[in-house]
Design goal:
Length: 185
């Protein structure tokens, strides 16, 4: 607390993290019944963009632990939960790295980069999570490749839906996030 009675520094950062965690988990549950269509990746990316890499990764780890650990369709445990958390940490890392670059971009180049960030975040998440089960189950290399092949249609839907989410939801939020991020804590 500052001498003037207002909040600054760590209390504001913690408030932002808590708000983003609540939003991320709520948005995750909102679309939980729809396979491979989700808003958690976008929320984790925005957390990294708003908070920076370190706090964004912490925020994304909290979001994914709560969302996947208490998922209404069945919670994740073990290596799968670790893979999901690392996948969302990757989205937050990309968001944090994206922020300084985004200041210099506008129009189609910004839209293309935001969409690319959604695709890369989703590829990273899907790679980790689709490898977690075969590794945990002790599959051979051939069985793992077959498992990854069977996951391709689901990953394609996930990539397409997240590309659209990043283009239609994240892109319009970027200017607002940038203004908030530039305000001192």
């Amino acid at each position: 607390m500052s001498d003037s009675g207002g909040a600054s520094g760590p209390p504001l950062l913690l408030t932002r993290i808590a708000a983003l965690v609540a939003v991320g988990v709520a948005l995750g549950y909102l679309l939980a019944p729809v396979p491979n269509v989700e808003l958690v990746t976008a929320t984790c990316f925005c957390a990294g963009c708003l908070l920076g890499v370190g706090a964004g990764v912490l925020c994304s780890l909290l979001i994914e632990t709560l969302f996947a650990g208490f998922h209404p369709m069945g919670s994740s445990l073990g290596l799968t939960l670790v893979a999901q958390c690392l996948g969302m940490a990757g989205a937050a890392t990309l968001g944090g790295l994206f922020r300084p670059v985004a200041r210099r971009l506008h129009g189609l180049s910004l839209a293309a980069l935001v969409t690319l960030m959604g695709i890369l975040s989703t590829l990273w998440f899907d790679l980790l999570t689709n490898l977690a089960f075969p590794v945990a189950a002790g599959f051979s290399f051939e069985q793992t490749l077959a498992s990854l092949g069977l996951a391709l249609p689901f990953a394609a839907l996930h990539l397409l839906s997240n590309a659209l989410v990043f283009l239609l939801v994240v892109l319009p939020a970027i200017p607002k996030l940038m203004r908030i991020a530039e305000q001192p804590l």
